[in-house]
Structure to design on (480 residues):
């Protein structure tokens, strides 16, 4: 009948999944075919992604998914594999949390000042932007042998189909794209000494990306032909596309390992003020710009859970809900929290250094993290509205954190705005919806947002008042 099935491969920093989306008139259902861990591996050369294990997980997932009408791949941004002249992968992709980019940006700014870089690309400053990673790799034997750079979703798509491309939404995180032209910035590349010929041609979300190779069909038990579709391959682009907003006056927070908090705009904001506030202008579907700030996100909690030997999360969150609010907060946007390890200690140190009570028990540390995230959400939502001149009256929380009731309520309280939470699997849904466009089953963003609002279970959190306390906590951090 009128229903089709799509496999969405969605790779996050701690796990990957293959979801099956069924789309038909008035219908959008998502089921999980397979979920697998994503465990970064540290070798003497640094921190890497185990991309072969991820590819094996993708193949297992496609087998579990069964017959589908197309496949799409999204993942975290900026990271990439290097291929040699034969198209073979040169070692494992380096993890964006690896320390090799320390001090690299500062070196690049000597010839390409940070202000000019922002005016040309609109990208936030993060030490791991692809531009800095490529400069860091320069001079290594591996980079000398490299003839191609493929971003992680493009690399997996290449292995699935044999075809190479650079999908636009993810390309926009390289710091080599001009958000006004939505094309490569030749000037930035030249001045940074980066050969744009290393990148495969740009692909737009919705473009065909080839067919599953015969070996892939065999490995997955699927009957061909199975087309692969370029989706918004940056997971955050797919997640924003699946925000179930009913008007343009909304902010979103994509929660997971990171919190990506901001607005959907029709053009970039490239002002000096915006640069100082470290907002990024990444590209979204249908000519949109994702104007947002990166906040450390649930990474802070994930790293604590790891340090505590993975206690049960539900119990911990219940205990955290009982801890007195806003006792101590840390700056959840601080890049000092980027690297892995010793997270409970680092949070305690930050509280001590700012003269606040030091959280001791896991429940207290958890409450400190959630209060700090909500506070950072508030700041980002306020700053974005002011810098873009785009007011909102609702905050949509999508991604894994939409399941965290305490985080959603605190975010509503801190922002002084209603929070609409869900869908938790926004990235996979955005991935599916772009594939469904190819079969003309759905239309543009406004129409798919209506479909999402009608079909996905959403939870609404009203602000409980008391924004003055959040403002006071904000001042406490600013005075540091
Ligand atoms: C979220 C995300 C963010 C990006 C970070 C690093 O998964 O894609 O948008 O800044 O990971 O790639």
């Amino acid at each position: 009948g009128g229903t089709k099935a799509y496999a969405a491969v969605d790779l996050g920093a701690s796990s990957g999944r293959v979801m099956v989306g069924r789309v038909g008139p008035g219908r959008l259902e998502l089921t999980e075919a397979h979920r697998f861990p994503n465990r970064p591996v540290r070798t003497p050369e640094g921190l890497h992604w185990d991309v072969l294990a991820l590819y094996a997980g993708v193949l297992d997932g496609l087998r579990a998914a069964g017959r589908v009408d197309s496949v799409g791949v999204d993942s975290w941004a900026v990271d990439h594999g290097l291929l040699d002249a034969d198209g073979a992968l040169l070692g494992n992709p380096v993890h964006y949390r690896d320390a090799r980019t320390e001090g690299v940006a500062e070196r690049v700014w000597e010839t390409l000042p940070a202000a000019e870089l922002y005016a040309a690309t609109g990208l936030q400053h993060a030490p791991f932007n692809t531009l800095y990673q490529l400069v860091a790799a320069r001079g290594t034997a591996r980079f000398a042998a490299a003839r191609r750079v493929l971003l992680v979703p493009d690399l997996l798509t290449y292995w699935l189909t044999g075809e190479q491309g650079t999908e636009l939404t993810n390309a926009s995180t390289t710091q080599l794209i001009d958000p006004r032209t939505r094309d490569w910035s030749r000037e930035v590349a030249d001045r940074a000494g980066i050969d744009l010929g290393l990148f495969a041609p740009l692909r737009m979300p919705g473009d065909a990306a080839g067919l599953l190779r015969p070996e892939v069909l065999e490995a997955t038990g699927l009957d061909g032909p199975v087309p692969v579709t370029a989706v918004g391959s940056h997971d955050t682009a797919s997640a924003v596309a699946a925000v179930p907003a009913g008007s343009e006056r909304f902010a979103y927070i994509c929660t997971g390992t990171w919190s990506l908090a901001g607005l959907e705009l029709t053009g970039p904001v490239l002002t000096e003020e915006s640069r100082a506030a470290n907002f990024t202008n990444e590209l979204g579907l249908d000519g949109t710009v994702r104007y947002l700030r990166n906040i450390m996100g649930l990474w802070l909690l994930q790293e604590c859970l790891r340090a505590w030997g993975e206690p049960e999360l539900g119990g911990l969150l219940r205990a955290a809900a009982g801890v007195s609010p806003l006792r101590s907060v840390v700056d959840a946007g601080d890049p000092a929290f980027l690297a892995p390890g010793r997270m409970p200690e680092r949070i305690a140190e930050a509280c001590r250094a700012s003269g606040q009570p030091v959280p001791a028990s896991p429940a207290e540390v958890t409450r400190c993290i959630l209060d700090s995230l909500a506070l950072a959400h508030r700041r980002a939502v306020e700053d974005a509205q002011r810098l873009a001149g785009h007011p909102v009256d609702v905050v949509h929380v999508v991604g894994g954190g939409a399941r965290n009731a305490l985080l959603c309520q605190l975010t509503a309280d801190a922002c002084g705005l209603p929070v609409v939470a869900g869908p938790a699997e926004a990235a996979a849904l955005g991935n599916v919806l772009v594939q469904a466009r190819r079969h003309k089953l759905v239309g543009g963003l406004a129409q798919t947002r209506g479909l999402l609002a009608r079909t996905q279970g959403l939870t609404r959190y009203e602000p409980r008042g008391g924004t003055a306390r959040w403002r006071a906590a904000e001042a406490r951090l600013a005075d540091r």
Remarks:
- Residues 76-78, 96, 234-236, 256-258, 260, 294 surround beta-L-fructofuranose (CB under 6 Å).
